[in-house]
Write a structure and sequence with these properties.
Helix content is 15%, strand content 34%. It has 196 residues and is an alpha+beta fold. Helix 2 packs across helix 3. It is rod-shaped, with a radius of gyration of 49 Å.
Length: 196
């Protein structure tokens, strides 16, 4: 009897009886059979015929019993060698392949568009130096807030600044300075820009 890669040997008492299974028949000393019998030295012999002990035959199908028997007879290294040899030839389990019938899930990624280039001028506002801070709201580097109104947010509406504001009268209008922003109104035209 044998399991894949493991060959058990048959042994029988010299006085006769059943053929038993054992991992190895030693050259000298006692032998333990799979059915649990211990045969004393010089009371057994190796035989080439199949085992006919029902317990040995049944236990020869139990890998844990065979493993225990190998280690009891100090044949554990032989069992390890056989196990490694089997592992070398064993094919790994195939990985589940992707089901080609199922289409791959599409990933919805938003299309990132670069922000539109800011024009040099939007109505009354010269945009150079300003940062957009909302719909029609612009902020200067010094923190002055300029609000634009009207259709297309092109008309100067309000200036907010917590600091000194200087207003200067011009011949045909007025100039207002708040932080780094200058608002000039003359001849019906208004210009808001960062002071140079």
């Amino acid at each position: 009897m044998s399991l894949p890669g493991i060959r058990l040997e048959s042994v029988r008492r010299k006085s006769g009886g059943r053929n038993h299974l054992t991992p190895r028949v030693p050259r000298s000393g006692p032998v333990t059979t799979l059915c649990g019998q211990t045969l004393a030295a010089d009371t057994y012999s190796a035989v080439e015929t199949d085992a006919d002990c029902a317990n040995c035959v049944r236990r020869s199908r139990d890998a844990s019993r065979i493993s225990s028997a190998f280690f009891e007879q100090e044949e554990g290294s032989e069992l390890l060698r056989l196990s490694l040899e089997q592992a070398r030839f064993r094919k790994p389990a195939p990985r589940p392949a992707l089901d080609s019938a199922k289409p791959a899930k599409s990933v919805n990624r938003p299309i990132v568009e670069p922000p539109p280039a800011t024009p040099d001028r939007i109505g009354d506002l010269v945009t150079s130096g300003f940062k957009a801070a909302g719909n029609g709201v612009w902020r200067s580097p010094a923190g002055v807030i300029v609000r634009m109104a009207g259709k297309g947010r092109e008309r100067f509406d309000e200036l907010v600044f917590e600091g000194a504001i200087v207003a200067t009268r011009l011949e045909d209008g007025m100039r207002l300075r708040a932080g780094d922003v200058e608002v000039t109104a003359s001849g019906g035209e208004v210009q808001v820009r960062i002071r140079r």
